[in-house]
Amino acid sequence: MQRAIEAKDVEQRLVVLVLVSRLFRKARAAQGVLWPPTKDLDMIEEVEFVVIGAGPAGATAAREAARSGIETVVLEKDGVVGAKRVCAAGLRPGFCETFDLPRELVHCDTPRLALFDAGGCEHEVFFGPGHTTTREELDGEIARFAAREGAQIRTHALWRSCRADGRSTIVEYADQRQDERRLIRARNVLFAQGATARLDDRLRDVRWRDGLMTTLQYRVYLDGPAHPIAYRTLELHYYQARDGRQVVAWMFPKRDHLAIGLGVLGKLEGGRLREELDAFETRTRARLYPGVRVIDVKEEGHLLFGGWPRARVSAGSTMVAGTAAGLVDATNGEGIYEAAMSGRLAAAAIGEFRNDPARAAFEYGTRLRARFQRRLEHRVRLMRYLERRPARYGMLFQQLAASTRFSGALSKEDHERSPLDRLVLAVHALRFATRASFA
């Protein structure tokens, strides 16, 4: 009898241990860590630089690091680089020349910017020539250049976790082709996965979720050409959704389709978001392609970002770049230039401080903040100010349309502005603040 009781007690304990083990594995998996950990250090690959994400930030960093002779591995979760990116893909003037990319990437040259205020009034601004492309072409081309320079681009590679290992970082990822987990020890790691990037506690920002945007975009394919002006124009529309939230919508022309989309801060149920986009597409059709048959529509949806840049973009030997670092202009959603430039800054810092990974990451963070922080934080404050009273959009757009010097100075980065540019901005800011206070 006693033995039976003891056997039953042992069995119960084993059941409890199994349940606890399962719960533990689930908790670790939720944190992005596989269990049990690898104990055989001989299985850990060694490289200098690991890039997580092959967008404009990650691919540019890989290309320029590899060109400098830095052994670089890029982990991209998708099977095709750029295939699942939701983006209007507008490029600022001179982008291809700045990053040594072929002009064949450009679909349309767009010297004209049309800003539509909350009342639907159009304000024409000339800033160009800007350009349009698609993310699958842009990201794929930069990744191909990175591979030619010697970087390894590993697709179907899902990042899981990082942990410090002395002066290095051990990166764990899932090789989805082989259904295996792999480890890489790297001197430096760059996170560049976009708005949905998961980061460790040292790099998290309490304001991040407030800047996430729910977006939906249609690629509209037509049986004939739209109005000629559509192919020379980037359109941005600012109005309120049916629930009162601010909407930023766009129409960007491409070679074979029009990219028509919108985004709202926070979460919005898919059906309601689609209703908003359908209504916007109907208005756009009436202006730009009335009577032209739509032969196909491809739908794309994802989370983008339109809030405050991260307060911290480096920790230890790890760095954050592009949209994952919050490098997005909150007023218009532009972030491709900032992403590519952040990748360039990361590669330059690693090359300069090749034997000191922590110093490289620190210098990267310092230079990135000096380059972008002030301007991007100002754009967030401006956007929130406009949102509080939608009539202010029209006032600002009127000033931009009336003064090419004002629109030109506003489009420059801080380090590009002359004393005259700063004076122009100060005068127009005072004028706008005076007018907007009565709105």
Say which CATH homologous superfamily of the largest domain is assigned. Answer: FAD/NAD(P)-binding domain
- Computed structural class: alpha/beta
What percentage of residues falls in helices of 4 or more residues?
Answer: 25-40%
Number of separate strands: 16
Shape designation: globular
CATH class assignment of the largest domain:
Alpha Beta
**Helix-strand pattern, N to C?**
HEHEEHEEHEEEEEEEEHEEEHHHHH
Overall pLDDT score: 88
Poorly predicted residue ranges: 1-7, 24-41
Distance between the termini: 87 Å
**Domains (count):** 4
- Tell me the CATH topology of the largest domain: FAD/NAD(P)-binding domain
Shape-level CATH architecture of the largest domain: 3-Layer(bba) Sandwich
**Radius of gyration computed on alpha carbons:** 25 Å
Could you give a short account of the major beta sheet?
8 strands, mixed
* Tally of individual helices: 10
Percent strand equals: 25-35%
Written account of the structure:
With 439 residues, the protein is of the alpha/beta class. It folds into four domains: 1-30; 43-104 and 132-207 and 309-377, FAD/NAD(P)-binding domain (3-Layer(bba) Sandwich), CATH 3.50.50.60; 209-305, Alpha-Beta Plaits (2-Layer Sandwich), CATH 3.30.70; 379-436, no CATH class. Helix content is 38%, strand content 27%. It has ten helices and 16 strands. The chain has helices at 2-30, 56-67, 95-98, 135-148, 270-288, 336-352, 357-388, 391-402, 404-411, 419-436, and strands spanning 45-52, 72-75, 90-91, 108-116, 122-132, 152-154, 157-165, 168-175, 180-191, 212-222, 233-240, 246-253, 258-265, 294-305, 314-315, 318-320. Strands 1, 2, 6, 7, 8, 9, 15 and 16 form an eight-stranded mixed sheet that branches. It has an eight-stranded mixed sheet with strand order 3-5-4-11-12-13-10-14. A hairpin with a 4-residue loop joins β12 and β13 (258-265). The radius of gyration is 25 Å and the shape is globular. It starts with a helix and ends with a helix.
